[in-house]
């Protein structure tokens, strides 16, 4: 036996054999691995690895942990763990048998838990009921008495309104048809000539609330309808004149294959066109040449000058074309 083997512990169960910890230590040193490196790879502390190599298994958490540590250590050192685990039995300390706890019958334990649960439930229900009762009492004492609504004014106003409407209908039925038509025409004419705010303010001059509500639907809507006719006619005339100015038999023609923004000026700086031309639409423009054009969607816009197609690619930068045509 060499001097190194004499330093190793011997198995108490089998004299003359090297202990488990000594074999692991010898294999680690043979591989040139330090104890710190082994502890790092095994995810153990240096003290625990040293205890395994000294066969001090009583310092480890327990025999189960000791077996696991030795198995992992052997696999790390590329040793078969089965013989080591067999020899490890003789080195493990005798664990103290745990004292058995007194058995409790299941029925008694369940009955005890049930009684405790019932007692807690009872006290909780009493406490919740007391809190709710106190809250309701405080709210009832602090809440003001409900005010009584006085409906008499509303009934009076309604009766007055119905009476006024009855008188108005009777007068209207007795009035001659020709006189009624003339008065209605004069009212519509006055409403059309007067501004809209005066027509809407007319009901406020009535002496009682009920009569103001009755004539409002007949006079107020008539004023915007009549007054809107001149405005609509003016806007239509303006649109027609603009269309005739833009669309025509001009020498400059634009066709939009997709929505595009177009701006055109003539030689005198007059703005001939500045709008978004919708997809499928075209514009024909005439004026004093040269024309200055700026087109927002040049790849999708066709330009013709006196029937000749203009190539916009040479004037286009990032889909915007700026050019001057003579």
TrEMBL record:
Keywords: Membrane, Transmembrane, Transmembrane helix. The chain crosses the membrane at residues 122-141. Residues 194-205 have a biased composition (Low complexity). The keyword Transmembrane applies. Residues 194-218 are annotated as: Disordered. GO terms for molecular function: DNA binding. It comes from the Bacteria. Pfam families: HTH_25, RodZ_C. InterPro entries: Bact_Cytoskel_RodZ, Cro/C1-type_HTH, Lambda_DNA-bd_dom_sf, RodZ-like_C. This is Cytoskeleton protein RodZ. SUPFAM superfamilies: lambda repressor-like DNA-binding domains. It comes from Andreprevotia lacus DSM 23236. Residues 24-84 form the HTH cro/C1-type domain.
């Amino acid at each position: 036996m060499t001097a190194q083997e004499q330093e190793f512990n011997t198995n108490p169960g089998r004299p003359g054999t090297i202990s488990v910890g000594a074999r692991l230590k010898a294999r680690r040193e043979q591989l040139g691995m330090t104890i710190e490196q082994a502890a790092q790879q095994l995810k153990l502390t240096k003290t625990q690895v040293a205890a395994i190599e000294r066969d001090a298994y009583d310092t480890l958490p327990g025999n189960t942990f000791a077996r696991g540590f030795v198995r992992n250590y052997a696999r790390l050192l590329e040793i078969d763990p089965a013989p080591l685990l067999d020899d490890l039995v003789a080195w493990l300390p005798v664990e103290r048998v745990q004292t058995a706890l007194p058995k409790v019958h299941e029925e008694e334990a369940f009955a005890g838990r049930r009684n405790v649960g019932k007692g807690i439930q009872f006290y909780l229900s009493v406490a919740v009921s007391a809190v709710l009762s106190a809250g309701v009492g405080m709210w009832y004492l602090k809440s003001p008495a409900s005010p009584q609504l006085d409906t008499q004014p509303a009934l009076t106003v309604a009766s007055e309104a119905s009476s006024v409407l009855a008188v108005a209908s009777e007068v209207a039925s007795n009035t001659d048809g020709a006189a009624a038509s003339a008065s209605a025409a004069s009212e519509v004419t006055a409403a059309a000539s007067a501004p809209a705010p005066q027509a809407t303010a007319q009901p406020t001059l009535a002496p009682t609330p009920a009569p103001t509500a009755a004539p409002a639907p007949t006079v107020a809507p008539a004023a915007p309808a009549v007054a809107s006719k001149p405005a609509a006619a003016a806007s239509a005339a303006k649109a027609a004149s603009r269309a005739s100015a833009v669309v025509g038999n001009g020498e400059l023609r634009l066709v939009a294959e997709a929505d595009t923004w177009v701006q055109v000026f003539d030689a005198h700086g007059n703005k001939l066109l500045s709008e978004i031309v919708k997809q499928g639409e075209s514009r024909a423009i005439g004026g004093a040449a040269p024309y200055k054009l700026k087109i927002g969607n040049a790849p999708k816009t066709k330009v013709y000058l006196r029937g000749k197609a203009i190539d916009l690619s040479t004037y286009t930068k990032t889909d915007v074309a700026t050019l001057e045509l003579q």
